[in-house]
Amino acid sequence: MAGPIDLEPLDLAALLCSRVCHDLISPVGAIANGLEVFDEAKDEETKTFALDLIRKSARQGSARLQYCRIAFGAAGSAGAQIDLGDAESVARGFLEDDKTKLVWNLPRILMPKNRVKLLLNLLLISGQAIPRGGSLKIDPVGGGETMGFRVTATGFNARVPQAIPALLAGGSAGEESINAHAIQPFYAGLLARSCGLVATMAVEGDGVVVSAC
Question: What is the pTM of this model?
């Protein structure tokens, strides 16, 4: 680790906004492309293809917005609590597909919003460990409002991206300044420390474990 990262609040906000925009560019761009194809289509088959693309991209965009609203946004007033059932719903909508499945072993309880934001950020990091898909198993560590989390990612060639453990700890993994790609694991580390937890990512057996406890 090259050293601790000290970000100004405005820089943190700008980088998080860039990250959210990056997540939304793909489905929004696909909707625009689908509309263009539909307008230029001369046959029903092409129009049907364009509408299917628009519907799929709209669902993806909505799922990403709902996820980002909790993972990065205020999601309620100061001191608010969030239902873990709602967190499960947005997580499945965003992360679960033909390649990746969630195994959700958390109880349905209300938790302080920063802990729920932390959980969703840990899931994003865990997904990077299995780029070809697999399984994300979410288990509680402890219980109640002080619960921590353990996410086990298993899949073909599961790995720990080089920079993430250092970023979770609040430091840089290299000489380059932090960017919109690196801000998400750095932010997860900030959330963990705000909750009195330590976030880590490491290989365990055939999988990768991302935890905050």
Answer: 0.90
